[in-house]
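Protocol step 4 of 6: structure prediction from sequence.
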Amino acid sequence: MRNRRGVAWRGDVTGVAGMLLLAAALGVAGTAPARAELPGDVPDKVRIAIGGMAADAYTDAALGSTTSGLGATVNFEDIFDLPESKDTWRFELNWRLNKRQFIDFGYLQLNRSGSRVLEQDVEWGDFIFQANAKVTAGFDTDFPYVAWRYSFLDLPQIRVSGSAGIDYVTLSASLQATGNVTDKFGTLITGDVEEKVSVGAPVPQIGLQIDWALTKRLAMLLYVRQIYINNIEGIDGGIGDVAARLHWWYSKHAGISGGLEKQSIDLKSYESGDTRARFRYEVRGLSFYLNFAF
């Protein structure tokens, strides 16, 4: 499908760029003299990042019931003209408790909607949205999280830390149309029809983070946060969050950062009551942040 091929190509580019960025950081960290310190002359008690991504995304989902099973998987970008590229925003706060312990807070949001006259029938939940129906699709995501992080390697130029925390995963997908909609038995439904599924549950997450001081005001941040969920709150699947950022502190209390980031969710199964759903969702792209240190 068009979107799948496009996203895969961009994903390859993102992956190659990420490896080059990592290699460059390793080279600088390995060859630079140990004169830079963490945090240098930049305060390290509280750090805040506000920004987001120019993101590429794809979304596959299916909705059915525990009794009748799932319908066909629907690609929202291809079928409903959901925007493939969309700006998103993110907030992060890192609070240093002592030399080795941190509390991390964060929030990521990406909401999209699109409309299209269908070229084929689409089964979604209890309804069949027929060809020639004008359907509006929406897909909203929110990811607040909090984590405790411990620096098990804390040197003048490099810090390596592990984290354990909780994400509150919120996903919602909906289809809405007026006319050209039937139930599963073929009965035509009059008026407005909206079928929506929402997932909201706290899930545990573990992570690894690396901070490199390249110079007194230039630093590299790399992190990966990942968890596989086995039937927690009706959720079975995996969640991942990866980033590589370059930070430049142009003053003692303010700076900018940018890099490459990816968030992904692969929920093989979600059950709540009689509802059963499946989601495969990924957003990736270039990021930019305003940073503040106190």
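Step 5 (inspection) to follow. The longest strand covers residues 192-213.
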